[in-house]
Amino acid sequence: MLILTGPAGSGKTFLALQQLREAIRLHDDSVRLLVPTATMAAHLRNELAREGLVVRPSLIQTLWRFIERWVSDLPQISDPAYALLVERTVRRLNLPAFAKVADFGGFHAMLVRTLEELSTAGLDSAALEKYLTTTLGEALVKVHREVSCAISAKHLGSRSDRLRLAAERIGKGETAELKTVWLDGFFSLTDPELELVKALAAHAEVIVTLPDDEIASTTRGRLLAAGFAEKSLKRRREVPSRQLVVAPSLEREADEIARQIVEQNRAGRPFREIGIIIRSGDVYVPVLRSTLERFGIPARFYFGGELMEHAVVRYLAGAVDVMLGGWDYSETLAVMKLAPGAGTSAPMDRFDFAVRQRIPGCGLDALRKIADELPYPDQRVVRLLADLSALESWRALKLKPAEWTRSLASLRALHKTQRPREAAGHEAALTWRTQALALQAFDSALFEAALSFDSAAAMPLSDYWSTAKAVLKLQPLRVPDHRRDVVHVLSVHEARQWELPLVFVCGLVEGQFPRFHRPDPLLPEHARRRLKENGLRIRSAEDTEKEEKFLFDSAMTRATRALVLSYPKTDSRGEQNLRSLYLDLAEPAVRARPVRVRPVRTQAPGAPIMIRSSELLQVIATRHADVRPTALESFLQCPFQFFGRHTLKLEEPPLRPDQRLDFRMRGKIVHQTIAEWVNTKLPIEGIFDRIFHEGVAEKNFPAGYQTELLRAQMLEDLMHFAESDRWPADFESKTEEAFTCALVDGFSIHGRIDRLLKAPDGRGFIVDYKYSDKLKDKLENQNLLQGPLYALALERAFGLRPGGMFYCAMRKGFQYGGWGEQMENMNAANVLPLTSEWLQAGVERSVRAAGEITKGQIEPFPNDPRICPRCEFRDVCRFAGAGEALETAALETAEGA
Ligand code: SF4
C-alpha cells in the first residue's frame, strides 16, 4: 500500500506504465491501471500500442468500468433518468421552500447538480439531516432522501451506492487474480472511492499516485491513516520553452494557434504531438473547430456534444414542437430548413422569403398554399410539408408510453439521408457517422422517457413529449474518432494525464481561467463549512479555488518541449479582458501575427477578378445600358456590391416584424407623406397618420414602445418640415417626377426626383429628401453622382435651366446642402456653385463607371472600407479588409457604448 506523491513531470504515470509494460511482456494479467476517464485510458493504451505492446482494455480502464463485474446486478441510474426523478420528486413533494421556483427548469438543473454532488461524495440524507437544519436545508435533505429511495425501488444505484457495494464484495475476497492495482490521474478520492481502495488493499498491492499539492491533502491523510506508506518523487522533466501571446480578439487568438501549428507541422512535427488545452469549452470549442478546419488542420476534440444540439435531432424534435404549437410560421420555417435536401433547395429560399413576409402567423394549410404557389417544378418543399402534415393525426391521440415511443421513432423517415459515397473524405464520413449516432441516441432517449411512465397509462403526446424532450436535452452525443495524426483539443480536466511536445493553453483571462464559480444557493457556503467542520467531505469555495489553481498548474506542465499560452485582449462585445491572475503581470507577451488563409484559387494569383465570358458580358451590357445614378454610386463604392445588388439583383431576406420599421421604411413613409402634402397642402398630421397606419396594416409592425417612439419622432419631424417649407409662391412644385436622359450613345440614366420646383423664369430646382440627421459627406464625396446627374436631368429631361440641386436632411431639424443658388428658406445651408465643370466631371465619372461595368469588373474593392460593416455582402465577398473594418466597427461601438 503505497502513495506516490510528486509534481507533474516527476514520472508517476511513467512508473505505472513501466510496471504494466513488464507485466504485458510476461503475459501477466494481475496488474491494473485505473484512471478517471475513458479517454485517459484510451490515450495510455495507445501510448503502449505505439511501442508495439498489445494491451487488453481491462488492464487500463476507468474506475467505473473496473467495478462493473462486482455490481452488474445494480445498474447505475442514467443522468437523464436521475434528472427526471428529481424534477418529479420536487413536484410531488410540493415543498413550501421550493414553491416559488418549482416550475423553473433552471432550478431543477441546479438542484440536480447539488444532489449529484452530495451523492457522489457519499453523503446520504441521514448524514446530512443533523446539520442542514434551515427550511431550505431540510427541504434539500427531504428531496435527497426521496430520490435515493426511488432509485433503490427501481433496483438501480447511484455511483456511490455501486462503489460501496463493490467495496463490500471485494472485502469478501473476490479479487484473487489481482496482485497490483495502480490508481493514477486522480487528485482527490471521495469517501466511497476510498472505501473501495481500502477493500482492494486488503487483497492486492495498491499504489495511488497523487500530486504534491494541497488539493490532495485530505485524500493523502486518509490513505496514510489506513496504513499506506508514502514515497515522494522529484521533478525529472526539463522545463519547456514558454511563450505568452496576446491577440486582439478570440478569433485572432485561434488564428494564431492555427498559424503556429501549421508552421510546426511544416517543420516536421506531426499533428499528434500537439495539444490545445481549453478551460471554457463553450467559448473555445466552436471557434477552434471552425478555425482549425479553415486552416486544414486535422483535430480531435475530446468534448462530448449535446444530442439536442445536433441538426438531426433539432429537426425531428422541432417537427413535433411545431405541430404541437400549431405550426407557427417562423418556427416551422426554421425546422424545415433543417430537412436534408429540401431544406437547402432553391424553392426553399423562395418559400422562406414568402413566409417571412407573412410573419407573424400560423397554420399548416396556409403554409401549404404558399408552397403550392411557388413557381418551381422542383416539388421538394411541397412534399416536405405533406410529410410533416402526417404528424397532425397525433394531436388527437392518447397512447401508452411504448406506443408513443414507436410512433416517434417513425420520425426517422423524415430524415432522408444521402447514401454514403465510395472514397468519401473523413469530414463526410464523420458527418454520416454522427448522424447515425444521433438517430440511435434519439431512439434510446425516447425509450428512456417511456420507462419513467406507468406503462399501462394512455396519455396525449404533449405529456409524453415534455418528458422525452427533457431526456433529449440531458443526453450527450459522443462520436468516436480514431484518426491517429490529429491535434488533440482537450479540456483541462482531460489533459491531466497527457504529455505532448507542444501544448497551447488558451483563454487565459479572468472569468475563464480562473473560472468564476457561482455560489450554490441550495447549499450555501456557511452550510458547506458546517458540514466540513463536522467531518463530512464537501467542497467549500476555498476548495474550489484551490482546485482551479491546481488545474492551471497542471495545464502548465503538460508540454515537454514548448508551451504557448495565449489570451484575447477583448471579448466578443469588444470589451477589454483582464489577463488571468495566475499569470505573472510582468511576463512579456508577444502580439499575435495577422494571418489570412489563402482561398483555393481557380485562376492565376494577381489576375483581376472579372467576368470574361463574352455572352455574360453581353448580358451585362444590355442590363446596364440604362441605370439609376445610385447604382453607379454603388459601383464606384465597390464593384462587388454593385454586382450583387444590381446585376444579380440579390435580395436580403424579409425583416422580422420588430425590424420592419427600419430606416428604409421610415424614409418611405416620410417621402410619401411629403409628396402628398406638397400636392394637396392638407394638414400633414392627417396625411402622416393615414400612411403610417396603412404601413402598420401591410407590414405588421408590432405595437409597442419602440414603434410609438419612432412614429412620434417622424410626426414631429414632418410637422417641423411643413412649418419651415417656404419656397417662393410662384414656383411650381411637383413630386416623384420620373425621368430618363441619355449621357452618351448607348448609355442613359433614369430616376425619380423627390421634388422638382420650376421658377417662372425657366430655372429648375431639385430637392432630394433624406430621412437622416445629417448630410455626411454628400458634398465632398467624388463617388456620389446623384447631384450632377440630377442637375443634368433638369436640362436634358425637363428642359429647365439648372438653378440648384439640394439635399435636405430632415430628421431632428433641418439641414440643406447642395449646389446652385442659395435660397432664402435654406438658412445656414452649405451651398456650392453649380458649374458646367462640375456637371462635366460627373458625366465623365459616370461614363467611366459604365465602361468598367460592361468590361465585367466585379472585384470586391471598397472605395471606403467603413461602408463594409453595413454592406449586405460582407459575409460572402471575401475581401480581407471587410473583416478588419467589421472588427474596428465592433470596437468603436463597444467604446462608444
Ligand atoms: S463588404 Fe465591402 S468589400 Fe465586400 S462587397 Fe461590401 S463593400 Fe465590397
Fill in the keyword field for this structure.
Rossmann fold, 14% strand, alpha/beta, binds iron/sulfur cluster, 7-stranded parallel sheet
Textual characterization of the structure:
Mean pLDDT is 89; it is low at 890-897. It is built from 31 helices and 24 strands. The relative contact order is 0.08. The strands form five sheets. Strands 9-14-8-15-16-7-17 form a seven-stranded parallel beta sheet, with helices on one face. Strands 18, 19, 20, 21, 22, 23 and 24 form a seven-stranded mixed beta sheet that branches. It is elongated, with a radius of gyration of 35 Å. By secondary structure, it is of the alpha/beta class. β20 (747-758) and β21 form a beta hairpin. Iron/sulfur cluster binds at residues 638, 640-641, 860, 862, 867-868, 871, 873-874, 877, 879, 882.
Count the DSSP helices.
31
> What form results from the Cα inertia axes?
elongated
CATH class call of the largest domain = Alpha Beta
The distinct ligands, each listed once, are: iron/sulfur cluster
- Share of helix among residues? 40-55%
Mean pLDDT figure: 89
CATH topology of the largest domain: the name is: Lambda Exonuclease, Chain A
**CA-to-CA gap between the ends?**
62 Å
Cα Rg: 35 Å
Characterize the largest beta sheet: strand count, sense, and whether it forms a barrel. Answer: 7 strands, parallel
* Integer tally of domains: 5
Strand content: 5-15%
List the helices and strands and how they pair.
Elements: E1 2-6, H1 12-25, E2 31-35, H2 38-50, E3 60-62, H3 63-71, H4 79-93, H5 105-120, H6 125-128, H7 135-153, H8 159-171, E4 180-183, H9 191-201, E5 205-211, H10 217-225, E6 229-232, E7 241-247, H11 250-266, E8 274-278, H12 281-294, E9 299-301, E10 305-306, H13 311-324, H14 329-336, H15 346-358, H16 364-372, H17 380-389, E11 398-399, H18 401-409, H19 426-451, E12 459-460, H20 461-474, E13 476-477, E14 487-491, E15 500-505, H21 525-533, H22 541-556, E16 559-568, E17 590-591, H23 614-623, E18 626-627, H24 629-637, H25 639-647, H26 663-680, H27 684-699, H28 705-724, E19 732-744, E20 747-758, E21 763-770, H29 786-796, E22 801-809, E23 815-820, E24 830-832, H30 836-854, H31 880-896
Parallel strand pairs: 1-5, 1-6, 2-3, 2-4, 4-5, 7-16, 7-17, 8-14, 8-15, 9-14, 15-16, 18-20, 21-22, 23-24
Antiparallel strand pairs: 10-13, 11-12, 19-20, 20-21, 22-23
Helix pairs in contact: 3-8, 4-5, 4-7, 4-20, 8-9, 11-12, 13-14, 13-20, 14-15, 16-17, 18-19, 19-20, 24-25, 24-30, 26-27, 26-28, 27-28, 29-30
The chain binds iron/sulfur cluster (SF4).
Residues 638, 640-641, 860, 862, 867-868, 871, 873-874, 877, 879, 882 line the site of iron/sulfur cluster (SF4).
